[in-house]
Amino acid sequence: MAISKALADELEKRRAVALEGGGKSKVEARHAKGRLTARERLDALFSQGTFQEFGLHAQHKTRHFGMEKKSIPTDAVITGTGFVDGRPVAAFSQDFDVAGGSLGEIHSKKICHTLDHAVKAGIPVIGFNDSGGARIQEGVGALSAYGQVFYRNVQLSGVVPQISVIAGPCAGGAAYSPALTDFLIMTREHAQMFICGPEVIRAVTGQVTTMEEIGSAQAHASVSGNIHFIAENDAHAVAIVHRLLSFLPSNNMMDPPHRIEPDLSIADDPVIDDLVPEDSKTPFDCRRVIERLADDGDFLEVMESFAANIVIGFGRIGGMVVGFVSNQPTVKAGTLDIDASDKAARFVRFCNVFNIPLVTLVDVPGFLPGVNEERRGIIRHGAKMLFAYASATVPKITVIMRKAYGGAYLAMCSQDMGADRVLAWPSAEIAVMGADGAVNILYRKELAETEDKQAKAKELADDYRAEFASPYLSAGMLFVADVIQPRETRSAIALTLRGLMSKRETRPPKKHGNIPL
Ligand code: HXC
């Protein structure tokens, strides 16, 4: 028995209407701005021919204020699954060309189905956000619909990776769904994200501002720290998603995509010997060290423009995916401040929950001194780093390159914070506090009576460094497993990682710890 022509035609007609989305003129206007449609974004994400849509025929069964006159193809969001580099991935893509991509009950049901499917199947979710927010005509039902999405974002957190692309407006409470996900990528020109826009801010507070200042990709990447990557356009955003996925496992029960060769042979790299200046006060770019440590120099930096005094990102060493955390001596002398602590702590927790080993590179003179830092709560924020490292059970390897002073030494994953192996370079200075500070406290009175105060202080500081901050002192007390030449670092880390592949560390059962937020 064959399907009648009439039935087959009706299906094709319905498909054509849904696939047309907002219609030809809206698509042309979008292309003229160099932007992709919601469907084209998914086409770019998934390998050709692998997308399976859920809810192409979605539409309202009930009538809402003003909506009986309007047809909303796909209910303004395209959802489904496909494959990226041979791995299944779930995605939704809001269609601004249809009812402004606004979110109503059916729209939300489609996104929720995608999230539920992702958690069942154990696969990552990618969300393209491009929406005018809650569908005004659906009233409070649209608010509840947002709540359903937020609830699921939280249930999925730590189970499967969630990545948000902000590809258009993302306003008001709607911004909280992306904010609950692991990584946010925002397109530079056509995306805005904010809770209260410039007009509302002016009306309520009298403050005059611009969208550029509060809601642009640039503002979020460098000032608010709400996003992780800026993309030049939609295609670039998808390329960043692909790159991120190449380092992430599909779920928390799997290992990340290591590329293990059976034989591990890594030669010394003499180039690293020359990267660190002899004078401990001369800054050097820690990214040059990371690039030498990572296989093929391949390093995906995360949150590049925010709290640049700490550098975080993904790479591989000897084939194993790792998360790098490094102080950056070229910015604020590599000190830890509130923003750097927040940035690193969240990254450490992401790596831990998705089984990604941590490699920590240390050159830290301490926490940033300052009235603002103290009053804004550096104690609470710095504690996040201690909390994150101490609760991480993935393999943790720490390399002390130069300074490792005071509480910041502990916050950068010392052995006491559970590091599996701490290595130090001969240039390492490990001590309870910096040499100048220690001399000032211990010898203030003597120095006041000395004629050439500066020369004496320098002499005492040099003595302190040689005697109290020597890496051999820490190695002698077993705080450091070994002192190695910089050139030996890559092979030392690779060997340690390989030896820790089956690391299991159990902790007392509990609901969750109470990280100082
Ligand atoms: C229904 C909407 C809509 C919405 C836009 N549209 N937003 N429809 N509900 N929230 C429709 C418009 O009516 C229009 O339909 C089409 O989408 C395109 O919108 P334009 O305004 O023409 O586009 P543009 O000039 O590019 O402006 C984009 C915009 C603006 C800045 C996003 O649309 C806007 O300000 N929208 C409202 C944003 C907002 O306040 N949302 C908050 C809702 S409350 P036609 O038929 O003319 O093409 C909320 C709370 C969520 O979101 C809380 C969650 C916890």
Structure description:
With 517 residues, this protein is an alpha/beta fold. The chain has three domains: 20-245, Alpha-Beta Complex (2-enoyl-CoA Hydratase, Chain A, domain 1), CATH 3.90.226.10; 270-433 and 470-499, 2-enoyl-CoA Hydratase, Chain A, domain 1 (Alpha-Beta Complex), CATH 3.90.226.10; 435-468, no CATH class. It contains 19 helices and 16 strands. Strands 1, 2, 3, 4, 5, 6, 7 and 8 form an eight-stranded mixed beta sheet that branches. Strands 9, 10, 11, 12, 13, 14, 15 and 16 form an eight-stranded mixed beta sheet that branches. It is elongated, with a radius of gyration of 27 Å. The mean pLDDT is 95. Bound molecules: hexanoyl-coenzyme A (HXC). Hexanoyl-coenzyme A is lined by residues 99-100, 102, 132-136, 143, 146, 169, 171-174.
Summed up, the domain count is 3
> Could you say which overall geometry the principal axes of the C-alpha atoms support?
elongated
Bound molecules: hexanoyl-coenzyme A
Estimated structural class: alpha/beta
The biggest sheet amounts to: 8 strands, mixed
**Annotated CATH architecture of the largest domain:** Alpha-Beta Complex
Question: How far apart are the first and last residues' alpha carbons, in Å?
Answer: 64 Å
Helical content, roughly? 25-40%
Strand content: 15-25%
Radius of gyration: 27 Å
